[in-house]
């Protein structure tokens, strides 16, 4: 019998919340604490802090936001897969499910919940994932199944063609980051960020940096 299967039979589920907004962490903690079989064993605002909390508290599941204090939630998901493969993860983010859900699953996450979803959906996601299943909205499940059975279908939004790193840089551009600050945040060289930026421009079909910046800002505003 798997660890996740036994959790639903009398054990208290330990949940770690990773989000860089204190109000969101508190809201999730309140929602989870209301469940008789769940407890919040810790909280974090960044990847390094989260990994230390996982080592100390050994959670059964981690709820992860994509945009963290000085890092990216997808990097945390990948780190958890590598260092703590028994720990399951649910991404809880404001960003468009159509853009992020599939890549989160490919990174190793077990579920995706938009922050606009009802709190009951968050609890359902936690229970579903701890039971050993994958959690997505019905709409996203249908979308992914459609992709699988229509492998020739091209993405309708070119943003979907960006790699994880390119999308991360695109998001940070939209949040007002310049090349140097993005390089420092992601621990990359300025040259590497510039190379990614040029590839993003090519994939999105824009030639001028000002057009890329404008598009990134609009995308970020739409996903707040």
Major sheet description: 5 strands, parallel
Helix content: 40-55%
* Computed structural class: alpha/beta
Mean pLDDT: 87
Query: What is the end-to-end distance?
Result: 41 Å
Short descriptors:
single chain; 224 residues; alpha/beta; 12% strand; disordered N terminus
List the helices and strands and how they pair.
Elements: H1 3-7, E1 13-18, H2 22-33, E2 38-44, H3 47-57, E3 61-64, H4 73-83, E4 88-93, H5 97-107, E5 111-114, H6 119-130, H7 138-149, H8 164-174, H9 179-186, H10 190-204, H11 209-222
Parallel strand pairs: 1-2, 1-3, 3-4, 4-5
Helix pairs in contact: 3-4, 8-10, 8-11, 9-10
Question: Overview of this structure, please?
Answer:
- The chain has 224 residues and is an alpha/beta fold.
- It is built from eleven helices and five strands.
- The chain has a five-stranded parallel β-sheet, sandwiched between helices.
- Helix 2 (22-33) links the parallel strand 1 and strand 2 (38-44).
- Helix 3 packs parallel to helix 4 (73-83).
Summarize the structure.
The chain has 224 residues and is α/β, with parallel strands linked by helices. The protein has helices spanning 3-7, 22-33, 47-57, 73-83, 97-107, 119-130, 138-149, 164-174, 179-186, 190-204, 209-222; strands at residues 13-18, 38-44, 61-64, 88-93, 111-114. It contains 11 helices and 5 strands, in the order αβαβαβαβαβαααααα.
């Amino acid at each position: 019998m798997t660890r996740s299967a036994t959790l639903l039979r009398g054990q208290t589920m330990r949940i770690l919340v990773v989000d860089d907004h204190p109000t969101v962490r508190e809201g999730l903690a309140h929602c989870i604490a209301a469940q008789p079989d769940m407890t919040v064993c810790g909280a974090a605002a960044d990847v390094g802090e989260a990994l230390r909390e996982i080592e100390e508290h050994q959670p059964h599941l981690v709820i992860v936001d994509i945009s963290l204090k000085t890092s990216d939630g997808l990097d945390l998901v990948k780190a958890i897969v590598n260092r703590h493969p028994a720990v399951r993860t649910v991404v809880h983010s404001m960003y468009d499910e159509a853009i992020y859900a599939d890549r989160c699953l490919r990174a190793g996450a077990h579920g995706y919940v938009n922050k606009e979803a009802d709190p009951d959906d968050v609890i359902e996601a936690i229970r579903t994932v701890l039971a050993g299943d994958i959690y997505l909205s019905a709409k996203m499940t249908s979308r992914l199944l459609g992709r699988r059975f229509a492998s020739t279908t091209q993405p309708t939004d070119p943003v979907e063609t960006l790699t994880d790193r390119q999308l991360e840089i695109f998001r940070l551009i939209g949040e007002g980051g310049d090349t140097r600050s993005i390089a420092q945040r992601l621990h990359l060289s300025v040259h590497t960020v510039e190379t990614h930026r040029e590839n993003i421009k090519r994939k999105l079909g824009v030639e001028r940096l000002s057009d890329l910046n404008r598009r990134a800002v609009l995308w970020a505003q739409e996903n707040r």
